[in-house]
Amino acid sequence: MHKIICRVLLISWMISFFYACGYNTMQQNEEAVFSAWGNVESNLQRRADLIPNLVEVVKGYAAHERETLEAVINARAKATSVKVSASDLNNPAAMQQLQAAQGALSSALARLMVVVERYPDLKANQNFQDLQNQLEGTENRINVARQRYNQSVETFNFSIRKFPNSLTNKLLLHLERKEYIKAEEGAQ
After folding, report:
1. DSSP letters of the chain?
2. CB 32 within 8 A of CB 160
3. Cα–Cα distance measured from residue 181 to residue 146, given in angstroms and rounded to the nearest whole number
4. Are 140 and 46 in contact (CB under 8 A)?
5. Contacts of residue 46, Cβ cutoff 8 Å, sequence gap at least 6
6. Angle at 146 between CA 142 and CA 147, to 5 degrees
7. Could you tell me if 33 and 156 are in contact, meaning their C-beta atoms sit under 8 angstroms apart?
8. Tens digits of residue pLDDT in 54-96
9. In the Cβ-directed half-sphere of 126, how many Cα atoms lie within 13 Å?
10. What global pTM score does this model have?
11. Is the link from the previous residue into 164 a cis peptide, with omega within 30 of 0?
């Protein structure tokens, strides 16, 4: 009888330990980070896909603004060439490189919009208006996706650091902190 009670207590302790150790929670939180990152990438790609159409419409009206158009094209090429995979989310240098490339693209697009102000016929063009609205909507989606990614990172990073999860992580999982998407230099 004594052995049965000891076994039942041992099994109960093991079940409660594995339930409280956070193994599944940490795995779930890491998957949430990966999912949120996928949403960021998807929105960045959407923006990159809109840019060639926008440049073509502007070219028809502002052909002599070649320098600005080339800056947008080059910034897009650089931004789309910087790839950050899910395994790089804990690499500060990779995240900084991505943010710098995306920041340069945002800056080039802002300069393009300033140029557009000089062309009332272009501003009145329906294709341009549609593209501009899509681009503005995409910029908003990118901001929301970045915020959600950062929230997922916060939850994940906390889950691997809190006790007893930290022991489980140290002994079994070896998960590393993920990097936040930070504001661009000078955004303060």
Report:
1. -HHHHHHHHHHHHHHHHHHHS-HHHHHHHHHHHHHHHHHHHHHHHHHHHHHHHHHHHHHHH-TT-HHHHHHHHHHHHHHHH----GGGTT-HHHHHHHHHHHHHHHHHHHHHHHHHTT-HHHHH-HHHHHHHHHHHHHHHHHHHHHHHHHHHHHHHHHHHHSTTHHHHIIIII---PPPPPPPPTT--
2. no
3. 7
4. no
5. 138, 141
6. 120
7. yes
8. 888 888 777 777 788 888 889 999 999 998 888 889 889 999 9
9. 0
10. 0.78
11. yes
Amino acid at 87: S
Amino acid residing at 98: L
Q: Quick one: tokens of 167?
A: 């022991």
Tell me the residue type at 79: A
